[in-house]
Amino acid sequence: QVQLVESGGGLVQPGGSLRLSCAASGSISSINDMGWYRQAPGKERELVAVITSGGRTNYADSVKGRFTISRDNANVSVYLQMNSLKPDDTAIYYCNADVVYFMGWRRNNGNYWGQGTLVTVSS
Q1: From CA 94, how far away is CA 47, in angstroms rounded?
Q2: Cα distance between residue 15 and residue 19, in whole Å
Q3: Tally of CB atoms within 10 A around 2
Q4: Is the pLDDT of residue 56 over 90?
Q5: How do residues 30-51 score in pLDDT, each as one tens digit?
Q6: How far apart are CA 97 and CA 7, in angstroms?
């Protein structure tokens, strides 16, 4: 199967920066869209940013100009550079990927989530 493992969360002061990483592993044929979502306490999970396999990006209005999503050349890892962080950015951040994976001789599609990494912005 497929696993997504995130890293890079932590505590940062307002105005600071963090970089999140997410690596996919398993019987992967290819990965289409990869993205980051977040869920703050008492709120629903929301899209932060998404990047296609071709490198097109889309961002939530609340993070435009502050966050940058990118992928590695092998297209199995995705990153989120977060600058000018605000207390409202405090949340658990989840990696998501649309994966084409091998099952025996066949290829199947699946949508996968990482376990989440906590980002806390506080002075």
Answers
A1: 9
A2: 14
A3: 18
A4: yes
A5: 999 999 999 999 999 999 999 9
A6: 15
What span, in angstroms and rounded, lies between the C-alpha atoms of 109 and 123? 43
| Contact call for residues 92 and 39 (beta carbons, < 8 A) | yes
6-24 as b/e: b if 16+ CB within 10 A: bebbeebeeeeebebbbbb
Contact 119, 18 (CB under 8 A): yes
Dist CA 75 CA 23 (whole Å): 9
Q: Do the beta carbons of residue 40 and residue 91 sit within 8 Å? A: yes
Distances (CA, A) of 88 to 43, 94, 97, 119, 120: 12, 16, 25, 10, 9
pLDDT in tens, 71-100: 997 879 999 999 999 999 999 999 999 999
